[in-house]
């Protein structure tokens, strides 16, 4: 029996390209939903489908039935100044993708949210909290990943904060927030995403879960062991 397709939005971005390459390497049938002109940026052996990520109708025509949907669309290099973009792109695309996935009969929805509550980036966090609520209300089985900051090529300056994280992790009053708002690597994120997809494939995608920073780190250990 063939494995269900994996449908990825945001597949030409920082995390998406790496995830698609890893999925293809692991012999998954990947459909990458992209805007016109971005087809050439989709990793080889994945099928590019052009459409509008802000249109449930456009998305719905492309999502294969019984597929695992991974939604990675988001504003590049988020900052507090980009609140309007978070609303117009991050929230709107997720809302439309959830609606399309439900109509298409997707088996599972994987969403990269953000660790919360948090003392900064309030608009960014608020959008993702509301998307999480949409997912819960949709009835679609889902996995929500909640990283805080993902370290990797071009995203390395927070390594300077590691001594501070160590101190906050030791103090009883700040230990919980230091764990929740900890740093993860791009490899750990990819491992957690792969684990979420492959768990949904193996189990018919019927369970829902939330994976926080410690869980993302642990997924990385299990996958790379």
- Any idea what the CATH superfamily is called? NAD(P)-binding Rossmann-like Domain
- Just name the CATH architecture: 3-Layer(aba) Sandwich
Mean pLDDT: 89
Q: How far is the N terminus from the C terminus?
A: 28 Å
Number of strands: 9
CATH class: Alpha Beta
Shape designation: globular
Individual helix count = 8
Radius of gyration: 17 Å
Beta-strand percent range: 15-25%
| Alpha-beta classification | alpha/beta
What order do the SSEs take from the amino end to the carboxyl end, as H and E?
EHEEHEHEHEEHHEHEH
Strand order of the biggest β-sheet: 3-2-1-4-5-6-9
Q: Give the uncertain stretches in residue-range form.
A: none
- Largest sheet composition: 7 strands, parallel
Number of domains: 1
Helix content: 40-55%
CATH fold node name: Rossmann fold
